[in-house]
Amino acid sequence: MSGREGGKKKPLKAPKKEQREMDEDDVALKQKLKEQQKALQEAKAKATQKGPLTQGGIKKSGKK
Predict the structure, then answer these.
(1) How many alpha carbons fall within 13 Å on the CB side of residue 38?
(2) CA pair distance 45, 39, nearest whole angstrom
(3) Cα separation of 54 and 52, whole Å?
(4) Alpha-carbon distance 22 to 34, whole Å?
(5) Which positions ≥6 away from 30 have C-beta within 8 Å?
(6) pTM of the complete model
(7) How is residue 64 annotated by DSSP?
(8) Phi-psi category of 57—alpha, beta or left, where left has phi over 0 and alpha has psi -120 to 50?
(9) Which one of 30, 46, 51, 52 is separated from 15 by 20 to 30 angstroms, measured CA to CA?
(10) H helices then E strands: how many in the chain?
(11) Which helix (H) or strand (E) holds 37?
């Protein structure tokens, strides 16, 4: 019945992962993904320049 045992136990620290060296295939894949991400960002920027696609809101009839 020790006062030190109560509460949350601290998790053990996980060992650090070793850095593995990247070969040519990994470098090429990373470059390809980076280019795709850049193209996607450019497409988003172009799409937002045109303005909203819908002219949303409540349509009013001419009657009162």
Answers:
(1) 6
(2) 10
(3) 6
(4) 16
(5) 22
(6) 0.44
(7) -
(8) left
(9) 30
(10) 1, 0
(11) helix 24-49
Residue 29 to residue 35: CA distance in whole angstroms:
10
Amino acid letter for position 27: V
pLDDT of residue 15: 80
Q: Is the pLDDT of residue 22 over 90?
A: no
SS3 content of the chain, % helix, strand, coil (to 5): 40, 0, 60
Give the total residue count for the chain.
64
Residue 48 tokens, joined: 């937002």
Q: Which two tokens stand for residue 17?
A: 């992962």
Q: Is 60 exposed, middle or buried (0-12, 13-18, 19+ CB in 10 A)?
A: exposed
Residue 43, number of CB atoms within 10 A of its CB: 10
Does 38 have pLDDT greater than 90? yes
Cα–Cα distance for residue pair 36/43, rounded to 1 Å: 11
